[in-house]
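Please check this chain.
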Amino acid sequence: MGEWNTPREGGCRCGQVRLKISAAPLLTMACHCTGCQKMSASAFSLSAAIPAEGFSVTKGEPVIGGLHGSSRHYFCPHCMSWMFTRSEGLDFFVNLRPSTLDDPSGLAPFIETYTSERLPWAVTPAVHSFEQFPPFEAYEGLMKEYAVQGPG
């Protein structure tokens, strides 16, 4: 696996919420679903699956936004930057928005999801593409492959 220096710190746009990463990502992703397009105000959202024990909020108190469903999307209460997501039943990792890190280098998406909803001009360097989410049983192999090849 390529070098991934930790710890790394980051925060929202206004600086009222800060976070710290002390573990390398398990996987990096770009999601092209229309929900992510709307929440990110972009063509796709980026995520880095960080082991939960390697993630902490060090300043401020993020609030839940988005659809308030089984996936809890956390935002800065002041500038409303979308910072990370915690998915119900998947407590072993946190989906960090890599652009919140002070140094987001080395976090190119390894997989891309929901290409069925991709904007025709949106291109990523992802190694694997899926029309929706990969089957749950595929994630173990993807994480193993990423551990060898990533981060990019």
